[in-house]
Each structure stands twice: as C-alpha cells, then as structure tokens.
Design brief:
The complex is a heterotrimer of chains A (about 375), B (about 300) and C (about 375). With about 375 residues, chain A is mainly α. Chain A folds into 2 domains: about 1-55 and about 360-384; about 60-335, Orthogonal Bundle (ABC transporter involved in vitamin B12 uptake, BtuC). Chain A is built from 15 helices and no strands. Chain A has helices at about 10, 20-55, 60-70, 75-95, 105-120, 130-160, 160-180, 215-235, 235-245, 245-250, 255-285, 295-305, 310-335, 340-355, 365-370. In chain A, α13 (about 310-335) runs antiparallel to α14. By secondary structure, chain B is mainly alpha-helical. Chain B contains 13 helices and 2 strands, in the order ααααβαβαααααααα. Chain B has helices at about 5-35, 45-60, 65-85, 95-115, 135-140, 145-165, 165-175, 180-185, 190-210, 225-235, 240-265, 270-275, 275-290, and strands at about 125-130, 145. Chain B has a two-stranded antiparallel sheet. Chain C has a 7-stranded mixed beta sheet with strand order 12-10-9-8-6-7-17, sandwiched between helices. Chain C has a 6-stranded parallel beta sheet with strand order 2-1-3-4-5-11, with helices on both faces. In chain C, α6 (about 145-155) packs parallel to α7. Chain C is about 40% helix and about 20% strand. The interface between A and B is large, with 46 and 52 residues.
Chain lengths: ~375, ~300, ~375
C-alpha cells in the first residue's frame, strides 16, 4: 500500500551531483502530482459524458462545482469546513494502515468522542476554558483511543480481524451513544430532540481568526502534519512500517509489534474522536443523534485516496469538501439529484486508484533520466 | 390471534432470521467466492444497493419481480467484473477499489433511483412452509421467500463445489497461491475476474431481495450497511459457504430480538438490544480467534496487498 | 414566461455572487417583484411521509405569481444545513427559509437567523420561544388530533382489540401521537390496548418492517406509526393482512383496501400565508400552531374497511374538534404505570403547554416512554 518509490539514484555508485539529485527529486514529486491530477481530469471528462447523456451541460456543472466549492470566500470556507472532520477521520484509517491494518470503524470513535466530551463538560464547569477545553478534548481522545485501541489489542493479542472488529465496534459505539444520549446523559429540557446538556458558552470552540471555519480545521491540519512526522521521520514510524511489511521479520528484529499495533490504532481512534469533540463544541453545542453523520466512512475514502499519506490527506479532504459543498447548488440549479456528487466522487476515486498502476511507467518522471549527465529530451513513453 | 407469550420471542427470532438473513447470505456467499480466489471486494455494499434499486425499477417498469431479480443479478455481475478488471492492473489495491466502488454503486443507485422511491413494485412470491400450524405467528414466521431457499441450496452447493469440482479447485488454487496456479497453467487474473463477477451477481440478487421482498421497498436507507456487514461475516464464517448460511441466520435472528422483546414488554434500553447482532458477532469472533494460528481457512493470497 | 424570467434572474444572481457581491441588496429582489423561498428537507421529497408533506406544501407555492422556490433534499442536521441556508440566501437571494426538519432548529437556524437579520426563517416543529431571534419562528400542527381520529376508526376495525404503533423515539410529539391513538380507540372500547415498538431511528427500513411484524405477531391487527417515511410500515402491515392508519401523508395507494384513514399534514395554506405576509411587507407570525380546525391537519379519505358506524363515530368526534379546544388528555386519567396524569375534571386542550413536555404513555399502551 505504501508505494514509496525506491531511491536508485542514491544507491548507484558515484553519487550524482546535488543539482541532479534535486532534479531527480522534482521528477519524482511531479509524477506524484501529475498522475492523480490526470486521473481527476479523466474523471471529470467521463462525468461530462455522463451529463451529456442526461442532457445536462458539463460546462454548467463545472461552473457550479467551482462556484459552490472554490470560487468565492464563502465557497472556500464552506469546503474547508466540510474538510475539517474528514482530516481526523482519515487519520484513523491512515495510521493503522502503516501497520498494514484496515480499520473502517472510525465513525464509532467520532460519535463516542463527541459524547465523551459532552459528558465530561458539566464536571469541568469551574475550570477556566484554557484548561476545560483541553480536558474535554482529552476525554474525547481517551474514549476514542480506548475504543479503536481495543480493536488493535484484539488484533495483536487475540488474532481478531481488525476490519470486521472495527466495524462491529463502530455499530456498538453508536448504539451505546444513542442509549446514553436518550438516557443517562439526556438533558430533560431537550424535549423533541434528545441531547446531552448544553456545553457552557465559555467551553465552546469558536472560529479561527479571520475565518468562519472552526478550529477543527487548524488542528486537523496540524494532526496530519504531526502524523506525517511520526510515520516518516521517527524510528517509531519506521518500526511500524517494517511491522506492516512483514510481521515475522519485525519480530525477529525484536520490534514490539503488539504494542505498535495497539499504539497506532489507539492514536487513530483518539484523533477520530477529536472530530467528534469539535462537532460537539464548535457546531452542535451538545451531543445528539446528528453526530452520526457518516464522516467516518468518508474518511476511509479520503485515506485511501491519499494513499495513506497523512500529508496528502489535507488536499484530498479539501477537494472532497469542495465537491460536497457544491452539491446543494447543483441540486438547486441543475435539478440533478443530491446523489450526483456521490457518482462524481465514486468515479474520481476509481480512476485515481486505477492510476496507481501508472507510477514508474513514464520515463519522463524517472529519476534515472534526470540523474544522467547528458539530459536526454524527455519522452512521454510508456515503458514496456 | 392467539397470545403465546414468551414463545413469541423465539418464533419471532426464527422468523426474523429467515426474513432478514437472505441479503446477508447472498452477499457473503458472493464474497466467499471472490475471496477464495484471492481478492477482496469491499464494494459489495454498493452492489447490493444498486441491485436493490435496479430490481425495484425493473419490477416497476415491467411489472415482473423476477425480471427485477434478473436485472439486479446482471447489474451486480457488471459491478463485479468492473472490480475484477480494475484490480488486474499491477499495484492497484483491491480493498481501496472496493471502497471506491461502494461509493460509486450507491451513488448511481441513489441517482437513478430517485423516481422510484414513490412507486410500488410487484413483490417476489413466498412459500407457505408454516401451513401445518394453526398459529398465525408460526405461519408468518415460516413464510419463506424463494430466494432464501435458493440461497440455502446455493450455500450447500458452493460448499460441495469448492471442494469437489475442477472449477472449485482452480478458484482455491488461485486464492492460495498465485504462483502455483500459474505454474499449473491457469490465468490467475481471469479466474479472479470471473470469481469477482460471480460474487457481484449474488450480491445484486441479495439487493433484489431487499427491495422486492423484505422490507420490499426502495429507498436510500434500504441497506444501511448490510452489504458491508455481510462482507465482514465472511471472515467470521472462515470462508466456508455453509458457515456463511449459519452466520447470516445468526445475524438475522439476533436482529429480530430487539423488536420482539419490546413486543412482550421488555422495552428499556432498546438501543442496546438493537446492537445484539454486533455484540454477538464480536463475541463469537473473539472466542473463536486465536493469536497463535493464522485464520484457519483464509486464502493465502488474501490481503497480500500490492 | 415565468421560467424564462427566473432563469435570467438566476443568471444575474449567479453573476453577482461570483463577483463577490454576497450581500445583494434586498430591495433589488423586491423591486423585481420576485421573492425566493428556500425549502430544506432532511430526506427525499417523495418519501410518502414527513418530507413529502412539506414538499407538497412547497409545490403549492410554485404556481404563485412572483414566487420562486428553491429546494434541497437529504441535507444533514450538521454544519451542512447552515451552509445550505447561507447558500440559498447568498446565491439564490432567498428571503424566506423553511428548514423543515426538527434537528435543524438548535443551533443551526438560530445561528443563521442571527447572521442574516433581513431574512425570515420559519422552522417546522414549534421550538421557537421569545428568547430566540425575532426573524425566526416556528409552526406546527396538533396532529395528535388526527391520531385520535385514527384510533376511533381503528377501534371499530380491530377484532383482536390490540393495536400496534411503530414509533421512532420516545419524544413528546411521538408520545402525544401514541396517546392520541389509544385514547381515540378507548373512547370507543375501553378494553382496547396498544403495543408500541420504538425503532430508535427516524428512518430505517428493515427495523420498521421487523417492528411491524413483531406487532402483528403479538396480535395487533391495526397498525399505525410515527417515523419519517411510513411507506415500509404501511406496506408490510397490509401484506400481513392488518389494517393500517396512515401518518404524515396519504398512503392509501400503498395499502389499498387495508387503509382505514390517516392523519396528514396540510402545509400548503400555512406556506401560502407566510408568503402573503411577506408580499404584503410584514413578517410572518413567529409562532403558529393549529389543528384540524385551523386546516393544519387533515384526514385521509375513509377506506373501504371503515364501517358505517365507524364513519359516523369519527365524523362526530371530528365535528367536536372543528369547534376548537378539544381535549385528548382529560381526567381521570393515569399513565401505564398507574401514576395519575389528570384528576377528574382536569382537561388539557390541544394547545395546552403541558403537552409540549409529555413524558408518559397513558394506560392501555404497552411500552415505556
């Protein structure tokens, strides 16, 4: 899954000059950007054919996507807002993926995190917000960590398939949350929409400076960067990747595979739960059934589309947020069903995933080409 | 109607198992074929939903429920082949493609299904296996749809065929060791393509059951994750078609527990009762897993990643 | 003609929005003699239920001169609905918004109402109070009256003396409907009981079908419900041979001769009233409520299974209700745990504030609130 290209240019005897290395690096990065962009463009082209077949204007559609998702400050903020929970949800997939695990139960951690934050809030009432808000976040994160970490522990110490276990745990978490929201934690005055007690105004998380988007976006991006550093720049991340590649080899090397699995799944769960925390403190003001909004499932898509790379999650979530933000406009202006954006997203994802096969096929992106001393004219040719 | 007290819970669970299990059964049988050949198709949720929509739409338009089943099977097969075809390309991840196709299939189903939310479609017929009884509850519980019977027979057949037929052997070899299959002269990609296509057909038919029999209606929440759950049940059933039948029945029966308990007056904490199928499945999964041995019955090529 | 006009306006609005003129001066829209109403649904518009009832109300506006209706369905009760409202205001120039789902109100409608003081927000559900923004408001109907009439008709049709109710969640409005249904039935025959099963979700087809089957297995032979889309419940019950009373919209086409009658919303006159107020230059009422007498609620036509006696009985009760002030909850009455709700002589009329916080099921109902 972690299709990191090899570094043949560095291994070759007589290492190339720094300038050539930079060119090789640029070539590789260009490939990593050009191929997905090409796939997205192909997706839009195919979707245009779909629209023409339905007698709708592709140009009008693209215009609405642009206008609804990206073309104005309002549209941009709308997209960013929608991207915020997806960042956390995707990390809940991408971090365990380092160990070769497919965790699809992030939705449960999100909901449980939201409920945990709302549940602890009244107990923190006396604290200054500077302490109270982080305490709420911590409580949410612990709930999520325990939930998804348990999935990891079952995998590591009991051999239980993590994909099915995380899905089951997610359904159980949602049932438990509903039970608590309509029972123990219910605010008696929340008559027709059962909710937990409202979180005190002082403990509400507001928008980021100069924006209408709440802090979930900022912390989400931060979490993605931190996750990238963890997985790419630390020994822990390196150990996880080895364990993900070959458990037995990792064990022989003395790596604590079990603890790595529990740690990475727990971290993923904690981050997913933060999405729930922000929904509760920045959007709803309490925990209620609207927390079950499907962010966890969209997060799976984001993670796979980002090829499990925490940094790539940021642009992918933004693109997705933008498409979803324009969905309403498309419904109202083109009289197309709300599912139109689902079809487009599905198509884009299939093509982006298919494009994985193209890596290394085009000589123009090959580092070899650019580390050779006489720079041959780049030829767009498919390697046999 | 006769009041039969707590017995009604047992009868309801049996009836619920028969009513609710069929989509789980078809999807998990389909996924078993696919996974036995060495591929994972997580997208069967999308196939199930598209099958439900296409079956309903066809039944509305043609007036024939069986035509709906046929179209759902064909559409499901098409989705399966698409998945199989995409995954033939080197370095394409089958789990990820499945998730993308789940979205694509559901999206297309919701898109084209809009005009069919309102109309009523003719329904699939049921067999009255309970006519021996005077109790209407038993008669109702044992009203069995033909697709359930077909699914049950299919699970026995697949169990036998995977062990005893040449095709079954080829599928298993492709799933256990691609290299061995190639050495024996089989085209592994083609085997997996066809196995994924067959899996799609079954999932599509499972969808037809949802919209044309039980609950017998088309709307966007008709599946709400049943396809995903059914794929998960394959691991639970250890890739064994007979065990898939058992798992589907168990899961369906546990799902009937919540409403049945309320109907006899146990109404506190219904959310928790509704979670019974998940808790039960998780419990059995934990109890039957073991840290020492690899999952017994798991095809060797599964989850190898690319 | 109308279509052409609206198209050019859309282009114009789209153009200005793209230029960043989000705060389109309101006068322009008024001067053009056009008013845009934005309607937001939580589910599909043709669900044979809650959303369809609102969509029918919105459809009644579409024919009116000078009115443009923009609609969005399947909008989640999250930030999404805030963005949809903002988009309708900024890009479509909507001056009246009708976010129809319960969960849209707090905090979403309240936030947007504060942000957009020149736009009127009317939310379905009766949650508005004096403390909320003045450009917001709510409307709702006493539909428990309809369920009471359902109960009267059901009482004449049942042979087992057991009724069944498929309910989403034990919230006051659902509990009032269940209480209305059983009290209507018991006004005919006090020996009748009603079993209720909660599904826990507003829309979940398989669970609704299972609940319906469980009710019928338990002996119920007349079924009604309070979920977003009654389609699955109605069809499942009719296939099992039970009679059905509808809810939200007219489901007679789904159950044929098994359909007795049904409690339906009629939002068209309310929506037309809002629009008329706005066109006359004044704000629509902040708090609007009504029942059968006010035309907020109506009954489906009687099905063939309704006997002559049942019709007469139900028509007589309906005539009482049309006078206004009809009390469904009146003493002596206990809840189903034996606790007294109303002593003899005490009656809660349809608009009694106490009914907003109902947390009990009356005697005769099997199930717990």
């Amino acid at each position: 899954m972690v299709a990191d290209t090899a570094h043949p240019d560095l291994d070759s005897a007589g290492s190339p000059s720094p300038a050539l290395q930079v060119r090789a690096w640029i070539a590789r990065r260009t490939e990593a950007v050009a191929i997905p962009l090409g796939a997205v463009a192909t997706g839009f082209a195919l979707f245009s054919l779909f629209l023409i077949a339905l007698g709708k204007s592709p140009a009008g559609f693209l215009d609405l996507i642009y206008r609804g998702g990206f073309g104005s400050p309002f549209a941009l903020q709308n997209s960013l807002q929608r991207a915020a929970p997806l960042l956390f949800a995707a990390l809940c997939v991408a971090l365990p993926a380092r160990l070769g695990l497919v965790v699809i139960g992030g939705e449960g951690a999100i909901v449980l995190g939201g409920v945990a934050a709302a549940a602890i809030a009244p107990a923190l009432a006396g604290l200054p917000p500077v302490l109270g808000i982080p305490a709420m976040a911590l409580c949410a994160a612990l709930a999520g960590a325990a939930w998804i970490g348990a999935v990891g522990a079952l995998r590591a110490y009991r051999g239980v398939n993590e994909t099915i276990a995380s899905l089951l745990m997610s359904y159980i978490a949602i049932a438990l949350s509903n039970h608590l929201i309509e029972g123990l934690l219910r605010d008696p005055s929340s008559l027709n929409k059962p909710s937990t007690r409202a979180i005190a105004e002082a403990f509400r998380v507001g928008p980021m400076p100069g924006m209408k988007v709440h802090w979930g976006l900022g912390f989400g991006v931060l979490a993605c960067v931190a996750a990238w550093v963890l997985t790419e720049r630390t020994t822990l991340g390196f150990a996880a990747r080895i364990a993900g590649g070959n458990v037995r080899a990792a064990q022989i090397q003395g790596l604590p595979v079990g603890r790595l699995i529990v740690g990475f799944t727990a971290l993923g769960g904690a981050l997913a739960a933060l999405a729930g925390f922000f929904e509760v403190t920045a959007v709803h003001g309490n925990a209620n059934a609207s927390l079950v909004a499907g962010y966890g499932y969209t997060g799976i898509l984001v993670a796979f589309l980002a090829r499990q790379n925490p940094l790539a999650i940021v642009p992918v979530a933004f693109l997705l947020g933008g498409i979803e933000a324009s969905g309403g406009l498309i419904q109202r202006r083109m009289q197309l069903p709300d599912a139109t954006v689902l079809v487009l997203e599905g198509l884009l994802f299939v093509l982006v995933l298919m494009s994985e096969t193209l890596y290394g096929r085009y000589k123009v992106f090959s580092p070899h080409l650019w580390t050779r001393t006489r720079a041959a004219a780049p030829v767009m040719a498919v390697a046999s | 109607m006769t009041d039969i007290g707590l017995w009604s819970v047992l009868i309801a669970v049996i009836g619920g198992a028969i009513r609710v299990s069929t989509p789980f059964l078809f999807v998990s049988l389909g996924e078993t074929i696919t996974e036995r050949s060495g591929r994972i198709n997580l997208g069967l949720e999308g196939t199930l939903v598209f099958g439900a929509m296409s079956a309903y739409a066809t039944a509305v338009l043609t007036g024939s429920a069986w035509a709906g089943v046929a179209v759902a099977g064909l559409a499901g097969g098409a989705f399966g082949l698409l998945h199989g075809w995409i995954c033939r390309f080197p370095r394409v991840n089958d789990v990820a493609v499945g998730i993308a196709l789940m979205l694509f299939g559901s999206g297309l189903a919701f898109f084209f299904g809009k005009p069919f939310i309102q109309p009523s479609a003719p329904q699939l017929p049921a067999l009255a296996f309970g006519s021996w009884s005077d109790l209407p509850q038993i008669q109702a519980a044992l009203r069995v749809n033909v697709l359930f019977v077909i699914g049950a027979a299919l699970s026995v057949f697949l169990w036998w065929a995977l062990r005893n037929t040449r095709v079954g052997l080829i599928v298993r070899i492709a799933g256990d060791s691609a290299d061995a299959a190639r050495a024996m002269g089989y085209d592994v990609d083609r085997v997996r393509l066809l196995a994924t296509g067959a899996g799609g057909v079954l999932a599509g038919i499972g969808g037809a059951y949802l919209s044309l029999y039980y609950p017998g209606s088309w709307n966007e929440g008709i599946s709400s994750g049943q396809g995903l759950m059914a794929v998960a049940l394959v691991v639970f059933a250890r890739w064994n078609p007979l065990a898939c039948f058992g798992a589907a029945l168990l899961f369906g029966g546990a799902g009937a527990l919540g409403p049945a308990l309320q109907s006899v007056g146990i109404s506190q904490g219904y959310y928790l009762f509704y979670a019974a199928p998940y808790v039960l499945t998780l419990g059995v999964l934990i109890a039957t897993s073991s840290p020492d041995r690899a999952l017994a019955g798991a095809p060797g090529e599964l989850g190898q990643g690319k | 003609m109308v279509a052409k006009h609206s198209l050019s306006r859309r282009t114009l609005l789209g153009g200005t929005a793209a230029l960043g003129l989000a705060a389109l001066p309101f006068g322009t829209a008024r001067a053009a003699g056009k008013m845009t109403v934005g309607v937001i649904y939580v589910g599909p518009k043709d669900d044979y239920g809650y959303n369809q009832a609102h969509a029918q109300g919105a459809a009644a506006l579409k024919g009116m001169a000078g009115i443009e209706v923009v609609e969005e369905e399947n909008v989640r009760e999250t930030n999404d609905v805030q963005k949809t409202m903002e988009s309708m205001i900024n890009l479509d120039g909507a001056s009246l918004l009708l976010p129809t789902s319960f969960g849209y109100f707090d905090p979403h409608v309240l936030i947007e109402a504060k942000k957009n003081p020149t736009v009127q927000f009317r939310h379905c559900g009766g949650l508005w109070t004096e403390a909320n923004p003045k450009n917001a408001g709510s409307y709702f109907g006493y539909i428990a009256q309809g369920q009471y009439l359902n109960g009267v008709v059901a009482a004449h049709a049942t042979k087992s003396k057991k009724l069944g109710f498929v309910a989403a969640k034990p919230i006051p409005q659902v509990l009032n409907n269940i209480n209305g249904f059983i009290l209507g039935a018991r006004s005919v025959d006090p020996s009748i009981t009603c079993q209720v099963i909660f599904t826990g979700e507003w829309s979940l087809a398989v669970k609704e079908a299972e609940a319906t089957n469980a009710l019928i297995d338990g002996g119920a032979d007349v079924i009604t419900c309070h979920v977003d889309s009654p389609k699955v419940t109605v069809e499942t019950a009719a296939r099992r041979g039970a009679f059905v009373c509808g809810y939200h919209a007219d489901q007679s086409a789904l159950a044929k001769d098994k359909y007795l009658t049904g409690a339906e919303w009629d939002w068209a006159p309310i929506y037309k009233g809002f629009v008329a107020d706005m066109q006359a230059g004044k704000a629509p009422p902040n708090f609007l409520r009504g029942g059968l007498a006010d035309g907020f609620v109506k009954m489906s036509a009687y099905g063939p299974g309704v006997s002559e006696a049942a019709r007469k009985n139900a028509d007589a009760v309906k005539a009482e209700m049309m006078k206004g002030g009809f009390a469904i909850i009146k003493g002596p009455l206990s809840d189903n745990t034996g606790k007294q709700i109303a002593p003899a002589g005490k009656a809660y009329a349809e608009n009694a504030i106490e009914l907003e916080s109902t947390n009990y099921l009356v005697e005769g109902v099997r199930g717990s609130a």
